[in-house]
């Protein structure tokens, strides 16, 4: 299953209401066949600009990042569900790309230089192609 990241802004709620909203959000992911990997609480912050959602204006919110795995066909349903949730100001689901390791991290790096054997093989191959032409 691909990895996803839900970057979500909840309304500025009290502790009990916020925990209910987080529980509801995580249950939605779990009930749709997802597996939650981690939660990150970024905290209560002022929003970069005034956001309007469900007829209300918000200028601060609780930021959370939830990393999870789920089948790709479930993501549109999750987006639709989170957009209807009255406690969520801004949901954003992003697909996590696998990190590509540096080529020189596990072995010596040659930076594209050719050693003597490679040069000889290249010369031989070129000579073969030239003779065919």
From TrEMBL:
NCBIfam families assigned: S6 (TIGR00166)
Any one Gene Ontology cellular component term annotated for this protein: mitochondrial small ribosomal subunit
CDD domains according to UniProt: bS6_mito
Protein's name according to its UniProt entry: Small ribosomal subunit protein bS6m
Family membership: Belongs to the bacterial ribosomal protein bS6 family.
GO biological process: translation
Listed PANTHER family: MITOCHONDRIAL 28S RIBOSOMAL PROTEIN S6, SMALL RIBOSOMAL SUBUNIT PROTEIN BS6M
């Amino acid at each position: 299953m691909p990895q996803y990241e839900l970057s979500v802004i909840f309304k500025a709620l009290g502790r009990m209401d916020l925990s209910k909203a987080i529980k509801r959000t995580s249950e939605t992911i779990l009930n749709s066949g997802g597996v939650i990997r981690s939660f990150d609480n970024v905290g209560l912050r002022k929003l970069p600009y005034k956001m309007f959602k469900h007829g209300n204006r918000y200028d601060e919110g609780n930021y959370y990042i939830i990393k999870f795995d789920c089948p790709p066909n479930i993501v549109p349903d999750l987006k639709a569900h989170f957009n209807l949730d009255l406690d969520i100001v801004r949901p954003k689901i992003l697909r996590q790309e696998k990190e590509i390791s540096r080529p020189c991290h596990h072995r010596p790096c040659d930076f594209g230089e050719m050693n003597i054997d490679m040069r000889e093989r290249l010369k031989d191959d070129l000579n073969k192609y030239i003779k065919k032409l």
